[in-house]
Design brief:
The protein is α/β, with parallel strands linked by helices. Helices cover 29% and strands 16% of the residues. Helix 7 packs parallel to helix 13 (407-419) and helix 8 (284-291) crosses helix 9 (302-310).
């Protein structure tokens, strides 16, 4: 199963899918560990979220990791011999839908260039490759950058007939994040969110809360030196903000922390360090280290836990904290430079079709934004990455950029945490 821990939090640095990459902090409770440089995150995925599919877990899922990209040639969209070629840059699992889409849309051929980074998708389009591609599927927090750079065109509502089939929550997110002058620019396709995982053999049952990551006596277990956090500001800082009660500052189109709140987040993370076993990239090494008993509680997406459970680790539990969870969702956009915009939106519509959405869910272990996809999955598949109670989406807070007026302070605070 692909490791999808980082897809969702693009911040310019991302961790490479499928590559074991890990380092730890030195300090109390982390004997023999080495200081680490910054880590990445941002991709599918994985960083994703299952709100109501309970198979011993509460919520969340992930969908991929970001770091670098295979840009491919893409090729300009065109019409040759009665066949319209739609060039797409997206996550590799989307190839699972290709055959069915091509058989459904008469005269349409897909040319898919796999990528592992939303940041790289934007960089390529912003450097002129928007003319080579018709569709990109970045994470939600990158879509505004595409919009601000005038790289994308509004949704063709006639072509995307399945838009109204999405969970209401995602239609609301479109209104909040991707709508300008009354026109929407992106279609959410699949999603996931972040909570934490713990070893039930040592950590007792408890009300899920970020308190477990920061407070010594939250559970009746000695967790000093037994906790893992993501080595990335884009995940660690918002989780800390939720712990401190700064939810309101996460609700808008960007994170709007005050400098005082950023200082409090920094101090909380510095004070947390003696409890840490280390910082980690969200990749297969997380699974290896967890299985070896090297930590007991870890900030996590759901994909890693799904894989561990399918491999027999029935002792691992995944939960979403009561304070809420940061979430990602991949969002399809169409190039303003495309000569085949209507057809491109028809392809996007097919991404949401139940049969295609089921194929994508099975390939990436992440749920579709269209609840009807559950009808194409078995009960076991629905328990893992399918059917979701819409009420369990209420605690989902989309990842987003930090407000520009405090960006310098935000970045500096994370650097100070890592240096402490």
């Amino acid at each position: 199963m692909p490791s999808n821990g980082d897809r969702q939090t693009e911040s310019g640095n991302e961790s490479t899918s499928g590559i074991g990459r890990r380092a730890y902090i030195a300090g109390a409770g982390a004997t023999g560990l080495v200081a680490l440089a910054g880590c990445a995150g941002g991709g599918g995925g994985g960083g994703g979220g299952d709100g109501g599919t309970d198979s011993g877990m509460d919520d969340g899922t992930d969908s991929g990791m970001d770091d670098g990209t295979d840009s491919g040639d893409g090729g300009s969209a065109g019409d040759s011999g009665g066949t319209t070629t739609i060039n797409i840059i997206t996550w590799e699992e989307y190839a699972e839908m290709q055959e069915n889409i091509e058989s459904t849309l008469d005269g349409v051929e897909l040319n898919i260039t796999p990528s592992t980074s939303s940041t790289e998708m934007f960089a390529q389009w912003n450097s002129g490759q928007d003319e080579q591609f018709d569709i990109a599927v970045p994470n939600n927090n990158l879509v505004r950058r595409f919009m601000d750079a005038d790289l994308v065109t509004p949704i063709d509502q006639d072509a995307v007939a399945s838009f109204d089939s999405m969970y209401d929550k995602f239609q609301t997110f479109v209104d909040q994040q991707f709508t300008a002058d009354g026109e929407a620019y992106g279609v959410p396709i699949r999603f996931g969110w972040y909570g934490y995982a713990y070893d039930t053999r040592t950590v007792p049952d408890h009300e899920p809360s970020y308190d477990i990551l920061f407070e010594e006596d939250y559970v009746d277990a000695d967790l000093d030196g037994e906790i893992i956090m993501y080595d990335e500001a884009a995940k660690a800082m918002p989780a800390t903000a939720l712990y401190l009660g700064f939810e309101e500052e996460l609700q808008g189109s960007e994170m709007t922390f005050s400098t005082d709140q950023i200082d409090q987040m920094q101090q909380a993370l510095v004070d947390q360090k003696p409890r840490l076993q280390g910082y980690i990239a969200a990749d297969p090494t997380f699974i290896q280290e967890f299985q070896q008993g090297n930590f007991l509680v870890g900030q996590s997406g759901r994909n890693e836990v799904i894989q561990m459970r399918t491999e027999g680790a029935d002792w691992v539990e995944y939960v979403v904290p009561r304070e809420g969870a940061m979430a990602w969702y991949e969002t399809a956009v169409v190039s303003a430079a495309s000569d085949n915009q209507e057809t491109a939106w028809e392809v996007v519509n097919e991404f949401l079709a139940p049969q295609n959405g089921a194929a994508l869910a099975q390939a990436g272990f992440s749920p579709s934004t269209n609840p009807a996809v559950s009808e194409e999955l078995t009960q076991e598949q629905n328990d893992l990455y399918g059917s979701i109670d819409p009420a369990r989406l209420d605690g989902m807070i989309p990842f987003k950029d930090i407000a520009s007026d405090v960006e310098e302070e935000y970045v500096s605070a994370w650097e100070e945490v890592k240096a402490a």
